[in-house]
Amino acid sequence: MEPIHLLLVDDHSVVRSGLKAFLNTLEDLEVIGEAENGISALEQMALIRPDVVVMDISMPGMDGLEATRLIVARVPNCKVLALTVHTDRQFTLEMLAAGASGYISKLAQAEELVSAIRIVASGGCYLQPLQIAWLVDEYRRLCHDSNFSQVKSPGFTDQINRLSKREQQVLDCVARGWTNKETGELLHISHKTVARHRERIMAKLGLHSCAELVRFSIQSGIIKI
């Protein structure tokens, strides 16, 4: 099976070197390119076709927001995962609006980064608990501003019934913003098993983005607004 090909974009060479050395120790991941800013990233994209771009935000020349917009527009099949020191709400929402499939802090554990890469590469989305809470708040605001009326459709019940009992348990934890590790501890399974369940959930429900997951969780009644 082909490994997940990665492009690392960060203006600090030490960060890129450390990430590359670590990620290349894993059989299913391979760093095939590096870039120091958005301009360099776009140049690399013309030469290689990574599955996932691990993107910093604050960089000289062209920042991660603009680079993400252009990459998603030009190469729709490529996924962008933001890896940044910024933990404030505005950066999270702007990166998601730009087309990022995930957002993770540089303070996260290495295993969480690996899990995030695998999830976005498979077509899912990855957010940490605080970011999920922000996205839910934003969706609530939009719903209320547009006089949204939450009506639980029978179709949502049918979709949830497609999931196994374990997948329903994992979906409930994901909707509450729990990490793979926290979910695994609650359900007495490994974080890797949780990640696989998350991937299957997204596939069975036909969800492709963080926003779609939140919308489904609210409209199906998993999250109450």
Q: Can you give the mean pLDDT?
A: 84
Please give the order of strands in the largest beta sheet. 2-1-3-4-5-6
CATH architecture of the largest domain: 3-Layer(aba) Sandwich
Terminal Cα span: 42 Å
Key structural traits:
225 residues, 2 domains, alpha/beta, 54% helix, Arc Repressor Mutant, subunit A, Rossmann fold
Describe this structure in words.
- The protein is of the alpha/beta class.
- It folds into two domains: 4-127, Response regulator (Rossmann fold), CATH 3.40.50.2300; 131-219, Orthogonal Bundle (Arc Repressor Mutant, subunit A), CATH 1.10.10.10.
- It has eleven helices and six strands.
- The protein has helices at 13-23, 38-45, 64-74, 89-98, 110-121, 129-145, 154-161, 165-175, 180-187, 191-205, 210-219, and strands at residues 4-9, 29-35, 52-55, 79-84, 102-105, 126-127.
- A six-stranded parallel β-sheet has the order 2-1-3-4-5-6, with helices on both faces.
- The longest helix has 17 residues, at 129-145.
- It is globular, with a radius of gyration of 17 Å.
- The N and C termini lie far apart (42 Å).
- Mean pLDDT is 84; it is low at 148-153.
